[in-house]
Specification:
The structure holds two protein chains of two kinds. Chain A is mainly β. Chain A contains no helices and nine strands. In chain A, strands 1-9-8-3-4 form a five-stranded mixed sheet, with no helix packed on it. In chain A, strands 2-7-6-5 form a four-stranded antiparallel sheet, with no helix packed on it. In chain B, strand 7 and strand 8 form a beta hairpin. The chains are: A mainly beta, B mainly beta.
């Protein structure tokens, strides 16, 4: 599985955009990048995923570099409720048995400052 | 559309007792995954099931743990003869198909005294 590297922690002022980086330099061409977050012991919440193109939904935007070796999750207007641990996960290619599981790292602890 | 449901939310057991954790997937989802989160650690995959089949149990301890997803009813994670080290949060996720996005439930927090 491709390994991901994320900063241990980050702060962001309320109302500003939160930009969370993820390095996945060993990613292969058909692996997806997924983002989840976990708010204080709750179940992980799916945020967004992408393969090559940038993606946007009602929660966030995902920017993937052209070489796909890194990505950035953007929360456009952070609120206090966005304080959580954010996990960047590279999902192995489909069609390979055993690749259905998600491998969670240590993530980035994002704190939104009032 | 209700999300993934898990019950109980909190479970206290004494050493040697059995723990049964239930997971009802989202409507239309037939794939269920169980993960465990030990205190101050990340989530670890345990088992992946489809209706009436265990697809991947590579993350599940070989002894005392079992999982099922019957044709009718919720998925059950069963832990026999619990020990203190089983104290953790157990999360269930579901997806509509293989390799599709997994959506997580709120978890069951097991405390073994």
């Amino acid at each position: 599985d491709a390994k991901t590297t994320q900063p241990t922690s980050m702060d962001c002022a309320e109302g500003r955009a939160a930009n969370l980086p993820c390095n996945h330099s060993t990613i292969s061409g058909n692996e997806y990048v997924y983002w989840y977050r976990q708010i204080h012991s709750q179940g992980p919440q799916y945020i967004i995923h992408g393969l090559k193109n940038n993606e946007t939904n009602e929660m966030a935007s995902l920017i993937i570099t052209e070489d796909r070796k890194s990505s950035t999750l953007i929360l456009p207007h952070a609120t206090l409720r966005d304080t959580a641990v954010y996990y960047c996960i590279v999902r192995p290619p489909s069609l390979n048995f055993g690749n259905e599981k998600l491998t969670f790292g240590t993530g980035t602890r994002l704190t939104i400052i009032p | 559309n209700a999300g993934v449901m898990q019950n109980p939310r909190h479970l206290v057991r004494r050493r040697g007792q059995e723990a049964r954790l239930r997971c009802s997937p989202m409507k239309g989802h037939s794939h269920v995954y169980w993960y465990r989160q030990l205190p101050e650690e990340g989530l670890k995959f345990m088992v992946y099931l489809q209706k009436e089949n265990i697809i991947d149990e590579s993350g599940m301890p070989k002894e005392r743990f079992s999982a099922e997803f019957p044709k009718e009813g919720p998925s059950i994670l069963r832990i026999q003869q619990v020990v203190r080290g089983d104290s953790a949060a157990y999360f269930c996720a579901s997806s509509p198909g293989q390799w599709e996005t997994q959506y997580f439930g709120p978890g069951t927090r097991l405390l073994v005294l």
